[in-house]
Design goal:
The complex is a heterodimer of chains A (125) and B (893). Chain A is α/β, with parallel strands linked by helices. Chain A is 18% helix and 41% strand. Chain A has a single domain, classed as Cupredoxins -  blue copper proteins (Immunoglobulin-like, Sandwich). Chain A has a 6-stranded mixed sheet, with no helix packed on it. Chain B is of the alpha+beta class. In chain B, β30, α26 and β31 form a beta-alpha-beta unit. Classes of the chains: A alpha/beta (125), B alpha+beta (893).
Chain lengths: 125, 893
């Protein structure tokens, strides 16, 4: 093996680890949602090529109100699906669309777009 | 008191510091605030939501209103609108802004109101899109609540007027639907601590301009518009990328295509072309392919990766390499390494964008069933209130409204006919092709079509409670649910994209280290190809798209599937338990035989039996009454009526002592029945219930009633058997009656004399035999069994409890729907499996081939262009395959 091959190999392996670490093992920042005076946990989620925030922490037993604001017309993000609750919402672009949930059981509940490409998670504690 | 517009402080009005701007007086707390305000008043007058309509009331009673006006195209229209508004009394200021398409009006609320202004705008020929709504409010006890709610509502952008009536507990709101929706209005009321109830809960229909007599117009589906717009944008992007990509491609293969010398390798002309292509590739990447970059970046921020990540990484790598090769070919150790891939960039972008556009088209078709259902909803109802007929939007129909329906019209909500009769086409809800005759007191379903007569009916279900709304809700819920098979896919999808990136990197390294010369070129091609070919879209949409089509198809046929779970289990069923009463049979007993002894006529026997039953509430009594009334017999008032539980009844009719009941009753009163006992056994063998009648201590005859089998039960059961299911009947009736019915419909296995609470246990017993069991029933007492079964079918109108406990609801009363539902579930799951196998196969095969695994053996290596085409068409193929389901035709039914 020549020197350049060794360098390419090492960089390649290092990059692979970096990719794996970044997407799978690095800690994502979860957003803790505070309860409003009305007792409802409200969160605004922007939708543009992904959900931001995409990791939300809620308290169990209190109603949750998620407001989605879709800032694009790309068809991918048209629908948001909460498979654990059989809930679906069509996100009209540039409109606030709310999804209301009541989760009593702590756990992790994922949501995703119609094609499963964009993903987010609700963590209920 | 008024509010300082700068700091928000409450100040006395008029205050020491005040100023007038635009005809309005503003009060301030200090000189500083006033100066700040005057230096830039617009900054502070600006409404909270700059794009929305606002509705402010100053302390002087002057209101400011911003109304969006639709369809202003020329500046010459402005004076028309303005002068029309200014004709009204009490208008201080009216200005139409063509850029924002809004009218700003300041007016005195004593002289004029928002409604009058809107009608003035309409008179000028423009739309404002106003809707009205009434919402019931619970827990409102004091007059002060009214002001609180009204003020809060009025402060919302988009609300034109709000009035709350304490007596009826209702709020009437006029609003602009493009600025606020019913839900937001309700939320506002609820935030104040009151509960709202629906008087009618569907989204508002935009009021359309005053085209005379035409109040009904299709509401614009904004999502549909957005989809259409996205499609057009993508097509433009595709055309742009393709228009550049094709010449790029021709130039890149100049040697093979035999183009003139100037385009061949090594010519100076070609070098300039490369430079041009390098520059021209930028708009292809950043305009045609902009969604790849924005999507990838958004995902990257969230530490996730998706298809956009793959495509953007691939084309960026190709562009950087090609550009370096164009401008600095000397840095490459060998001349042949300075290769260009601009053609690949443009073509890949074009193909992937085309795929996305086609997918939008195909997806639009998949949700057609849903659209059809939504389209069934009538827009207006002709309501008779206080003797006045008026057309009102369907959202305003309230319970107990009397609604008039003429021939050919759609029935707006669910209700009961109070006057008139007609035949009604219910095909859209039940799938039943033949119109149904409806008389007074019969129920009608919203969304069905009145064929022949005019009638009036009373609304019994409105808003989201109507059958149609519930069907829509249920279908929507099922379409968004997840089939268990999907969970595996999801787990894979989470790891998919980063894995592909790693594979691409490793493939690059492998080719660099071990590949043939020029190794850098091969490594790069492989890297880009792997990234491009691995589109996770096909995998992601494989299940949901088929599910959506399948569930929608079911709804079209009156089969409501609750979830993807239900659909997946339904295809595995191998046994079905049918409740006898109401499922196999009509569920209502009817008179079948009248037998008399010597000296009594048939009419006499029937009329006396029916007369006795007039006082009882026994279901068998109803059958006798109906039998008697069918023959138009005279009935008498029973006296001294007495029920003897477990035996029968006795009463005095026309001075005759009448006994009506079973053989035990006859024996108890020591009545000689003669051969009647023998004949009653024969009736019982046929599944009929014999009832003995004795008049003045003498046996007079037998009336027999039976629950008759539904006309199509026999064929339906044959179909179920043909589908390979074991068919079992369950009933609380005695063995003999049960066997008689079972024989009629060809059922071999019967659970008879089963107490209601034991039905679930019997279902479990079958499950213990290792079977996957469906239970079909309609009644309250079936609910536990429906829940116990792997799949519970609630049949016919069914009780709410039965529907709640079931997985699949059959709107039509026919058992044939069970067979159809099972067939549909099998077809849908087959379709899902095809999609998944296709998607896995595509990726499982595509990635290794792209990585060059076949190269050492067969010399096969894909180009990024082929990869782009494959990716684009993989998802289109999946959606198209799902759309095949729309043509689903049952084989047995």
């Amino acid at each position: 093996m020549s020197a350049d091959q060794i360098i390419v190999t090492l960089i390649g392996i290092a990059l692979s680890f970096l990719v794996g670490w970044y997407f799978w093992f690095s800690r994502k920042e979860a957003v803790k949602i505070k309860t409003a005076d009305s007792g409802v946990q409200e969160a605004l989620i922007k939708v543009k090529g992904g959900y931001s925030p995409d990791l939300l922490v809620f308290e169990a037993g209190k109603p949750i109100k998620l407001t989605f604001y879709r800032e694009e017309t790309a068809a991918c993000s048209e629908e948001v699906i909460f498979p654990d609750f059989n809930k679906k919402a069509t996100l009209t672009p540039f409109k606030n669309i709310t999804v209301e949930l009541n989760i009593d059981k702590p756990g992790e509940y994922s949501f995703h777009c119609g094609m499963g490409m964009l993903r987010g998670k609700l963590i209920v504690e | 008191m008024s509010k300082d517009p700068v700091c928000g402080m409450e100040v006395k009005s008029p205050s020491a510091y005040s100023a007038e701007v635009g005809g309005t007086e503003y009060d301030f707390c200090s000189e500083k605030c006033k100066n700040d305000f005057l230096s830039n008043p617009d900054k502070y007058i600006k409404p909270l939501n700059p794009s929305g309509a606002t509705y402010n009331i100053t302390s002087e009673g002057i209101e400011k209103l911003d109304i969006p006006i639709i369809g202003i195209h020329c500046s010459s229209c402005i004076p028309t609108i303005e002068s029309e508004i200014k004709k009204l009394p009490g208008i201080h200021f009216a200005k139409v802004n063509i850029a924002t398409e809004k009218a700003r009006i300041e007016f005195n609320r004593k002289d004029v109101n928002a409604e009058k202004i809107i009608s003035a705008i309409k008179k000028a020929g423009y739309k404002t899109g106003q809707s009205s709504l009434s919402i019931g409010i619970v827990d409102m006890h004091c007059a002060s609540c009214i002001t609180k709610i009204e003020n809060e509502l009025k402060s919302l952008p988009g609300v034109l007027s709000a009035s709350v009536d304490l007596a009826t507990g209702k709020a009437f709101i006029k609003y602009l639907p493009n600025l606020i929706n019913v839900k937001e209005i309700k939320n506002t009321i609820e935030k104040l601590g009151y509960k709202t109830v629906e008087s009618a809960g569907e989204p508002p229909v935009k009021e359309t301009p005053s085209e005379k007599g035409k109040t009904e117009k299709e509401p614009v589906d904004e999502n549909e518009l957005a989809r259409e717009k996205e499609y057009k944008t993508l097509m433009h992007k595709f055309i742009f990328a393709a228009a550049l990509g094709i010449p790029f491609l021709i130039i890149s293969y100049a040697d093979y295509l035999g183009l003139p010398e100037a385009f061949r390798e090594g010519s100076p002309m070609l070098h300039y072309l490369w430079i041009a292509m390098s520059v021209l590739s930028l708009p292809v990447m950043f305009w045609s392919g902009s969604q790849f970059y924005t999507g990838a970046w958004a995902a990257f921020k969230n530490r996730s990766a998706n298809m956009h990540t793959l495509v953007s990484t691939g084309i960026s790598a190709a562009w950087i390499y090609s550009t370096i090769a164009t401008f600095f070919p000397e840095i490459f150790p060998k001349a042949e390494l300075a290769n260009q891939f601009f053609d690949a960039i443009a073509i890949v972008v074009a193909l992937v964008v085309l795929g996305m556009a086609l997918e939008i088209r195909a997806k639009g078709k998949s949700s057609e069933a849903m659209k059809k259902l939504m389209g069934l909803q009538a827009k207006t109802a002709r309501v008779i209130r206080n003797g006045q007929e008026s057309d009102i939007p369907i959202e305003e129909v309230v319970l107990d409204d009397i609604i008039l329906v003429r021939p050919g019209e759609k029935i707006p909500v669910d209700g009961m006919i109070v006057e008139g009769s007609s035949s009604i086409d219910e095909a859209m809800i039940t799938g039943e092709a033949i119109p149904v005759e409806k008389l007074e007191n019969d129920e009608v379903i919203g969304g069905t079509i009145n064929k022949t007569g005019s009638f009036k009916f009373k609304a019994t279900k409105v808003g989201k409670d109507t059958t149609l709304s519930q069907i829509i809700g249920m279908v929507e819920q099922a379409q968004s649910s997840k089939a268990p098979i999907q969970k595996i896919v999801d787990r894979v999808a989470g790891y998919f994209v980063p894995s592909v990136i790693i594979i691409a990197i490793l493939a690059f390294v492998g080719w660099y280290d071990f590949g043939p010369q020029p190794n850098l070129i091969y490594a790069l091609i492989v890297f880009v190809t792997v990234l491009i070919i691995a589109c996770p879209c096909a995998l992601g949409i494989a299940t949901p798209v088929s599910l959506m089509v399948g569930v929608g198809k079911g709804a079209e046929n009156g089969i409501l599937i609750r979830s993807g779970d239900a659909l997946e289990t339904a295809q595995k069923l191998n046994a079905v338990v049918l409740d006898k009463t109401g499922t196999i049979t009509e569920g209502k007993p009817s008179l079948t035989d009248v037998i008399t002894t010597k000296g009594f006529s048939e009419d006499e026997v029937l009329s006396l039996s029916a007369s006795v039953e007039k006082a009882s509430e026994h279901p068998l009594g109803e059958a006798l009454l109906k039998g008697a009334s069918d023959k138009s017999l005279t009935l008498y008032e029973p006296k001294e009526f007495d029920a003897d539980p477990g035996h029968g009844v006795e009463a005095l009719v026309e001075e005759k002592k009448v006994l009506l009941g079973n053989i035990k009753l006859m024996k108890k009163h020591s009545i000689e029945v003669g051969d009647l006992e023998e004949r009653s056994k024969k009736l019982a063998d046929d599944g009929k219930t014999p009832i003995f009648l004795a008049i003045d201590g003498k046996a007079a005859g037998i009336v027999a009633v039976a629950d008759v089998v539904k006309p199509d039960s026999k064929t339906a059961i044959a179909q179920l058997k043909k589908l390979g299911l074991e068919v079992v009947m369950i009933t609380g009736d005695n063995e003999r009656t049960a066997m008689a019915i079972a024989k009629q419909v060809n059922i071999d296995r019967v659970f008879a004399e089963v107490l209601p609470q034991e039905k679930a246990f019997n279902v479990q017993k079958m499950q213990n035999e290792g079977k996957i069991v469906a239970m079909v029933g309609d009644g309250l007492n079936d609910a536990p069994a429906l829940a116990q079964a792997d799949i519970g079918f609630a049949i016919g109108a069914g009780t709410d409890v039965a529907i709640e406990a079931s997985d699949i609801t059959l709107i039509k009363g026919s058992l044939k729907s069970v067979a159809l539902a099972i067939e549909l579930s099998r077809a849908t799951m087959r379709n899902i499996r095809q999609n998944l196998v296709g998607a896995f196969f595509y990726n499982g095969l595509g990635i290794p081939v792209a990585a060059g695994l076949l190269y050492p053996f067969f010399g096969i290596l894909l180009s990024p262009i082929i990869a782009g085409a494959a990716m684009a068409f993989s998802s289109v193929t999946v959606v198209s395959n799902a759309n095949r389901l729309r043509r689903f035709k049952p084989k047995t039914v």
